[in-house]
Amino acid sequence: VALDLTNIRDTLCRMEDSIIFNLIERVQYPSNAEVYAPDCEDLSTFMKHTIKSAGSNGCYADHFLYKTECLHAEAGRYLHPTEHSFFSPLPEPVMGENHRTKIRETILYPHSVNSNQKLLRLYRTAIVPEICAEGTDGNLGSVCCSDIHLLQTISTRIYYGLFVAESKLRSEREQFNQLIRDQDRDGIMAAITKPEVEARNIQRVIKKVQTFSPVSYTHLTLPTKRIV
What is the pTM of this model? Predict the structure, then answer.
């Protein structure tokens, strides 16, 4: 059931809706770029050291994101194959070892790929300046909370693509095995993706944005190539 492409597509569409709603929520605030500025003076030396040790630049937004991830890590969020943290190390889950082992038993092959730092940079340097007005309104905490919801949903959506890849691999195993043996990265991507489907997906997203939001975003442009 988990690798049924129809079920996967339905789940991806729901995530798509969540991402669009969260983007619309973020647009209600200006960029508030100071929350992304390195070495926030409002954070204690101890806190800056803590988050920098986990991969942060010491900014205000990272403090909120790191604290949120610590709590989620204790709840076992990052044991799921489509959930990956932006920072590491994080606390161990508080649940028992038997429960943790059960969660780790998954149909996906274990991997160490994590593109969330790239996503974080892209979000703050490209997406926020594109969709939000310049300036600040003082709602720094609300902006950080909005960012966290959005970033985590986008991240989960990205890694959920692993189920798509695994499903296609199992349905055409001989073709993929040969591509893997040949180390043909372009061939693998061509076998996994369909440009005509992706073009329809972009148009679907545009229609959803126009439907969900009363504000016109006709000045925005969607990327025509992968950026994550």
Answer: 0.85
